[in-house]
Amino acid sequence: ACFPSLKYLQIEEELVDEEHPILARMNHVRSLSVRQFLRTIRDPDETLPSTSYPVVEELECSNEQISLFLNPRNLTPRPIHTMTLDGASYERHGGNFVEGAPRWKEIIRAVQYCQYSAVPIKDLRFYVTRLDLISLKRVVSMLPKLESLLIILDNEPKKVSHLIFLTFLTSLVITPLYI
Predict the structure, then answer these.
(1) Nearest one of 113, 107, 140 to 126, comparing CA atoms
(2) How confident is the model at residue 10, as a pLDDT?
(3) With contact defined as beta carbons under 8 Å apart, do 94 and 136 qualify?
(4) Do the Cβ atoms of 30 and 53 come closer than 8 Å?
(5) How far apart are CA 17 and CA 80, in angstroms?
(6) Calpha distance 118→97 (Å, rounded)
(7) Cα–Cα distances in Å, from 21 out to 27, 54, 100, 107?
């Protein structure tokens, strides 16, 4: 095996596919970050074989890339429990910037693939343009074991007090993109 003690791997999207077998066969990588600089439209039926990154537990990728890793066509599901979409991260004085934050329908589409993980998703992070409580409730209902949720908004939420239905979470952060 190549780099047998490597647990975290950050790669560009172009290196994820089967054409780069050395990377794809790193079957000990537990945390995978796939960087995407240009938004691409992916075929949702496109998937990586189960032998590529088979033990990944933490996945950071764009919402369009989820189907590569979590897909009903995978013979052996990956044990992903932590998912970061589009590089969403909380930093007190600002942080990553995403051009064209995804809409809720894109997030919902990505979260629907979570059912194909070998374990429940417990930690989810994503960007959206605005707070939509109906869409948020739909996302949360698809992830019954969710413990931590980070949502980064383009606009500051006006009524965070309406989030009482999320009381089962151990961590909830909703923050504007620019502080």
Answers:
(1) 107
(2) 87
(3) no
(4) no
(5) 18
(6) 31
(7) 11, 13, 32, 30
Residues 167 and 169: their CA atoms lie apart, in Å, by 5
CA distance 64 to 59: 13
Q: How far is CA 124 from the centre of its chain?
A: 6
Q: What is the pTM of this model?
A: 0.81
Place of tokens 């794809």: 24
Contact 82, 59 (CB under 8 A): yes
pLDDT per residue rounded down to tens, the chain (179 residues): 567 788 998 887 767 766 666 666 778 899 999 987 555 656 667 788 888 889 999 999 989 889 989 999 888 999 999 999 988 876 654 555 555 677 899 999 999 999 999 999 999 999 888 888 899 999 999 999 998 888 887 655 454 433 334 445 666 666 555 54
Is 84:59 a contact under the CB 8 Å cutoff?
A: yes
Angstrom distance (rounded) from CA 171 to CA 150 = 8
Burial pattern 155-166, b for ≥16 Cβ within 10 A else e, equals eebeeeeebeee
Residue 34: closest CA among 64, 69, 59: 59
In eight-state DSSP terms, residue 154 is S
